[in-house]
Design brief:
mainly beta; Hypothetical Protein Tm1070, Chain: A; 52% strand; globular
Amino acid sequence: MLNENTTLGKCQWLIPDAFYPVKDTGEYVSHEAVCVLNAGEIDAEINITLYFENAEPMEGFKAFCKAKRTNHIRMDKIVSEKGEKVPRGVPYAMLVTSNVPVVCQYSRLDTTQAEMSFMGLIAY
């Protein structure tokens, strides 16, 4: 049971292996999500920075997670403050920061083949 002295989560999370495939097969769309759990009493302001092997970082991806709620931030739907989308077919990594401690999980649904695959892991 949580009490007022319990702090769950961290304010910085790293996801080193992200990839949004170019092609989809069937009716399902390949996608990734940063799944945020905010078990605290204060709404979380989430900032995401993308890092690439051969390009400058992309910043300005913002989301929110209300107190005592979750938010599954779909990386195929999020748009940066500059109007940029996550590029498809390019490996990247993410830094997720929050103004309050949260827990982050990363998940990927790959529909590039008829035998879809799903991966989920806790960020670092």
